[in-house]
Amino acid sequence: MLSKSYALLTAIGLLVTIVAFVLLSKSEQRLVHNRLSSWILFTSRGPRTASSKTPPRSVSPDKKPPVNAPPSADYKEIFPPWRRDSLSTVRSDKCIQVVNEIPESLVREGLVPFTADFRTCKSPATTYTPMGISISEVTSLGDFTDYAELSGVPLPEPYLDFKIESALPRPYRPLRWGYHQTMSLNRLQTDWWLELEHTYVERIGERKDLFDKNGTMVLDYLPGSELGCKEVMEMALQFLCARYPQYFSLSYSKGQGHVFHNGILHNRTIIKDMHPLHVLLENVPEDFAVMIRNPDDGYYYFRAGVLCSSLGWSVKSKLGMQLKQIHSPIPDYKEKMEFSMDRYFSKLPTDRPIQRGSWGLEVDTPLFMPPGDPHEKYRETQVPETELPLSRIHLRVDWQTLRRLPLSGAIIFNFKALFTPVEDFRHEPYIPSLLLTILQHGKPSIMAYKNTWHVEHVVIPALQRWKKEQEERGLVPEDWEVATLQESPFFPGWEERWRGKQGF
């Protein structure tokens, strides 16, 4: 099984590499070709296997770098894929002549500075975003432009049967086995980018209270993020209006400009009176981090965000950091994912948003837990079973999406925290067996990072009982070889069960 899995991963990796190479410009292809010889040995021999007990090799000043290290990349010379041709099909508020072909050299010389506000650029006609679009062109598009056309991602289909009072989130179970620390990315189901459920009113209120209490720990922004914040806010509101037209709409008047009407909260938001991230805080119960490309080095930095669902970190603790700095606590990130993630961010197209999920086990349903939060005490010890009933333990899934914005070129990392009582797994085929295997045999460093130890003494015996029950009932074959489910991130029969619970 392992050899087949490695063969499949190798084939997928080769396909992705070929596609990425084709997308490169001729100059970038030459750059890759010149470095290929130093990379061949790495791909033929494979990286050194690391474990929690075997730290990766370090490089001393008097030693040569290991031959299996990936080549350094000059991301400063790599632009994201452009979609300038879409400008000519989007109606502008002002008539401008759209030039489809812009030399990369011209864009490189006129890139908008990292900390500059696009609204105050002195030479907007010759100042460009990393998407090869001039600030004059951005301004001419106005507010709430046709982002679907610009990005290549269509607006969602209307969900007319949706009823907020009984709506439930889809039952995400992003459990994988054999477990390897990878990006685990899948193509985004674009109709489900922003997913509402019956806790909407409660969650919006909780998030606003968190901001009132914590301020810049949950919402903040740095200079240069203005266009990215505006884009993601406008795209999110357009999505809500298209997906849930029975609850949301946008209007425009000369006096007030654009106004967002929220039929669930029974209020209205005058867009021009509020920072874009505050508009999201008031209306969208999900988190958004704005990652901006630095023209000085080509890497992406966390420059703005509204994040009310983080565990062990906050906006304040990560703002301004480069991608690799943000992920430094994650096991195996530097050794196995840093190079791939930086390369992926540099080439992510606007029309290929992705989704993934991370998970953990929590006592109760903590939404925001910065370092030092009182709830952390539950993670420090195993509370006796007599004091910790199974009903208090939940699977927390952070369902995440990643997409590039079409004008600024910013990358938006967005996620929502979803809680499911562990007791629900009793009725979900294969889930008890799968989770049990992960808890008992997962890689120690990864399981320590997930921090499930504090509830395992209560959860594992329950999973063992439910596993046996499902085998006796014929829901799971007794000889089933535990593996990631074909229905992942869901489970067999999930949709019928989910629709039956919510009644539509």
The termini sit apart by: 40 Å
What string, H for helix and E for strand, traces the elements in order? HHHHHEHEHEEEHEEHHHEEEHHHH
- For the secondary structure, the number of strands is 10
Spatial extent as radius of gyration: 24 Å
What's the tally of helices?
15
Give helix % range.
25-40%
What topology, given as strand order, has the largest sheet? Answer: 1-8-9-10-6-7-2
SS strand fraction: 5-15%
Can you tell me the overall shape? globular
Integer average pLDDT: 85
Profile the largest sheet.
7 strands, antiparallel
SSE class: alpha+beta
Model regions low in confidence, pLDDT < 50 over at least 5 residues: 1-23, 25-69
Task: Describe what you observe in this structure.
It is a single chain. The protein has 504 residues and is an alpha+beta fold. It has 15 helices and ten strands. The strands form two sheets. It has a seven-stranded antiparallel β-sheet with strand order 1-8-9-10-6-7-2. It has a three-stranded antiparallel β-sheet with strand order 3-4-5, covered by helices on one side. A hairpin with a 6-residue loop joins β6 and β7. α7 (226-243) runs parallel beside α8 (276-283). The chain is globular.
Structural descriptors:
globular, disordered N terminus, three-stranded antiparallel β-sheet, alpha+beta, single chain, seven-stranded antiparallel β-sheet
